[in-house]
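Fill in residues.
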């Protein structure tokens, strides 16, 4: 699954980078999403594989905080980019005549840069709050990476502030983009219903439906793990964590490329490109 994630997303990045016809806002966002997905999986899966091969499951406290920082930074970026891509599709489908004036190169750069800044500030807050805690009891994390909830349960300090920040500020980081995604797809659905051709409606619904399914899978599993008061980080929570850290980054290349004729053409052209002759 990790190899599929890395190869699939890298192929998308290379195809978009080498085909001038794909240098548009939609593919710019998709290229950023693919880069984030590679990094997202790479923060957890390689460490799991190393632990399995060398039978050593140790990690330093600083290494644990570093892993936690990057896991949640890339998770935030995934959420923001999915929201940005939904807005891009909303403008393209519902306001096609104004697309080039609304979705400018400056706006694209601003949306992506703003996403990086907010994601880093959010994760920095939670990392600093975690660093101030004392860990004087058990040091075994019942998880496959340094996650917030298991770490808080190992602390012998008062974790009330950490938990409140996760439930308030952390929930806003997830649910505001998710609300934007839902609102965009509601407007897209209304626009698609006005399409006279049944075949055109089915094509649009199948494409949007697959995109929305990945968004729902990603958001639902995160909500179940971090915003459920009764969550005890059981085997079910670990399985849900695997879904958003491993499965969704692997699915994104297939969801966003298999139904995209231009991207498939660019991939085919890149794979069958003749090497330069000396």
């Amino acid at each position: 699954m990790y190899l599929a994630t890395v190869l699939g997303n890298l192929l998308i990045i290379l195809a978009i980078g080498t085909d001038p016809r794909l240098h548009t806002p939609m593919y710019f966002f998709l290229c950023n999403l693919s880069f984030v997905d590679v990094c997202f999986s790479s923060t957890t899966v390689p460490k799991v594989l190393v632990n399995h091969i060398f039978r050593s499951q140790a990690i330093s406290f600083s290494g644990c905080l570093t892993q936690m920082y990057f896991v949640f930074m890339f998770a935030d970026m995934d959420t923001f980019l999915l929201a940005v891509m939904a807005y891009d599709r909303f403008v393209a489908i519902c306001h096609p005549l104004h697309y080039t004036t609304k979705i400018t190169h400056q706006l694209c750069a601003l949306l992506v840069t703003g996403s990086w800044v907010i994601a880093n500030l959010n994760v920095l807050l939670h990392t600093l709050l975690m660093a101030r805690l004392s860990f004087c009891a058990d040091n075994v994390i019942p998880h496959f990476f340094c996650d917030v909830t298991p770490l808080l349960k190992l602390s012998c300090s008062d974790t009330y502030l950490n938990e409140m920040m996760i439930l308030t500020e952390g929930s806003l980081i997830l649910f505001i983009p998710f609300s934007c995604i839902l609102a965009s797809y509601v407007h897209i659905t209304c626009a698609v219903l006005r399409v006279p051709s049944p075949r055109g409606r089915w094509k649009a619904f199948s494409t949007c439906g697959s995109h929305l399914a990945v968004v729902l899978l990603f958001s639902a599993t995160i909500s179940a793990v971090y915003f459920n008061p009764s969550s005890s980080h059981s085997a079910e929570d670990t399985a849900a964590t695997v879904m958003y850290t491993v499965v969704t980054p692997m699915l994104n290349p297939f969801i966003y490329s298999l139904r995209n004729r231009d991207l498939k053409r660019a991939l085919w052209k890149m794979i069958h490109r003749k090497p330069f002759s000396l």
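The chain has eleven helices and no strands.
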